[in-house]
Protein: 25S rRNA (Uridine(2843)-N(3))-methyltransferase
Amino acid sequence: MGPRRKAAASDKRSKNVPSTTAVARKKEEPSLPLELQQLMLQQFTLAFPFADATDLKDVVQVVKGHLYNRNFADAFGKPEHLEAYAVRWSASRALGYADLLVTLDLPATQLVFDSPEPNREESKPVNVICIGGGAGAEVAALTAVIGRRSRIPIEITAVDVADWSHVLSKLETALTTAPPLSAYASEAAKAANKAFVERETLQLKFMQRDILADWDATLRETVHSTELVTVMFTLNELFSASIPRTTKMLLELTENMRIGSHLLVVDSPGSYSEITLGKQAEGEDTERRTKRYPMQWLLDHTLGEVAAGSWEKVLGDEGRWFRVGQGVGARYTIELENMRMQVHLYRRVETK
Structure:
C-alpha cells in the first residue's frame, strides 16, 4: 500500500531472462546470499503467523479482489488484510529491494562496503524515509542490507496514507527479537538463537500522511534529516491520482532534501499515468480527451526540467529483473514471485 494506494502486481516466474543495463545489474544471479533471503522470509512468517496456508490464501484472494476493483478502503480496511498483504507481496518485494540495494553505490547506506565509510561516526545511524513503505518491504530490505550486513544503526521512517502501524510494529518485533525455541531445544541451539538484528540497530517510525496533501513542518524536518528517500511501487499510483499534486510533492522533496542525499524510485516497468485534457462534450470519444504519460518521463521532466539544476541522475534502468533464488521460499507459506522493475536513482546537488 503506497501513500495513497499500491497495486499488487508482480511478474510470474519466467524462463526468459530479459536484458538489463550493465550499470544497473552487476550480476544476473541474486546478489543477496540465499541464507540471508531465507532469514528475511522467516521474519515475515514470525511477524504474521496465520493459522494455516488455506486461511492465508483465502484472505489473499479477498484482498486481490478488492485491489482489482480498486476498492482500497476494503482491501486495507482490516488488520488481517494488511497482514496478508505483507506476507503475500511485501516478503517477495523485500527480497527484490534488498538485491537491488546491494548493487547500488550509495555512500549514505554503505551498500557496497563492508565497513563504515571514512570519517563516518560508527554510532551515527543511517536515516531513511520510505514513502509508501507501510507494508514493510522496504523496512525488511533496508534492515537486511544495512543493519545486518553492515552492522550500521538505521533509522527508518515509513510514510503512508493507510494505518500500517500495527503491521510495522509486528515486523519490528520479529526483526529485533530472537525467534521462539522449543522447550526441548539444545543448549547449542539456545546459544545460537539470535535476533535478525540487535534491537538498538533498528529504529522504526511510522507517519500516517497523505503525501500529496500540504506538508507540515514535521514532515519537512523529517525529510531534511534524511540521507535517502525511497518511493517503491508508489509513484505511478500517485501520478495517476494527480499529476499536478505529485509534481508538487517531488518539488517539496527537492526543496527539503539535503545536498548529497539520494532519491530512489522503483516501479513497474512501462508504467503510464493518464490525465484528461479539457472538458469532454456529451457523446465525445474519451480517447480524444486523454493523454498518457510514461511515469519515467514525468519524473525526469519534474526533476530535470522543472527543478532544473537541483538533481543529478545517477542511474536509470527501464527493466531490471529480480528472480527468487533456487530453493528460497520452499518452506514459505505462499508462493513467491519474481519481480521486474524500473529503477531511477537521483542525487540532490547544489543548484548552480
The chain has one domain: 34-115+122-178+195-277+287-348. Strands lie at 126-131, 154-160, 202-208, 228-232, 262-267, 272-276, 290-294, 311-322, 339-348.
